[in-house]
Amino acid sequence: MKHRIVVLGAGYAGANAAGRLAKRLHPADTEITLVNADPEFVERVRMHQLATGQDLKPRLLADVFAGTGVRVRTARVTAVDAERKTVALSDGEIAYDTLVYALGSAAADCGVPGVADHAHHIDGKGSALRLRDRLAGLAAGGTVLVVGGGLTGIEGVTEIAEARPDLEVSFAIRGGLGDWMSEKAQRHLRGTFDRLGITVHEDTDITRVGPDGATTAAGREIPAEVTVWTAGFAVHPIAAATTLEVSATGQIVVDDTMRSVSHADVYAVGDAAFATGLNGMPLRMSCASGVPTAYRAADAIVVRLTGGSLPENKIGYTGQCVSLGRRDAVVQW
Q: How far is it, in rounded angstroms, from Cα 293 to Cα 287?
């Protein structure tokens, strides 16, 4: 009987895990099924472009994996039974011998009142398209507030300001603008924000979002017809509802091969995994973590099934590429 490998989620982590497994395992011995709710591969790092009216090239998963031996199943995951080794899907059920859990993350409201009801997100294709429609409906002089000073927020706010110079765009962040970057990179970042006319509210904590803007911890109101929330991400709650060991964040706790510490037939990759990097610190939720953890898990599965040895885990970070609209960027090593 073939060894059944099921990969849940076809983002950067899941898609790369499935592809690497297919490349290194023989189809006569293994059956690889990739389950994803969307029939297309979603370039999550480009959602700010989609939200501002740009069209991205569609990449159907069936075409991406054509000829690889990977079976693509378009369905939504509703539950995982780690004891029965089955996954409940919107169109039925699938059993596995080895599971690669890569369901990723979505925007988190961080417990701030009003975010769920009034804020837009750019965490996926559906949310980006909803923001796209809303921005398209804004007249000249309309106001947009982006909340959250990480990469998603910076790329989102600069893309909006460049695409719609007729809007009043502002940016609310808890710390300083790009304060994790070098002084040179921060100067360039501030120069870009000035050029694009973005108003920056630094050291500002947003405590409430309403239909007409946001309220700060100091009680100040920042008016906005559209608020875009990019202040954090949270993993899908499915893992926490299983018998798998998860962290306080709901991520599956894994060893340095991305294997669950509680269930030896389950691997977690990308945002869904609570994994430690080369520096001994937990890997952050990012594409930069997703691809190497996917490779690590796939290689570990191959070694387990076919023999051989696995190199030392050396996952770490080299740099960050931050787009600032279509004609500007910062690369921070």
A: 10
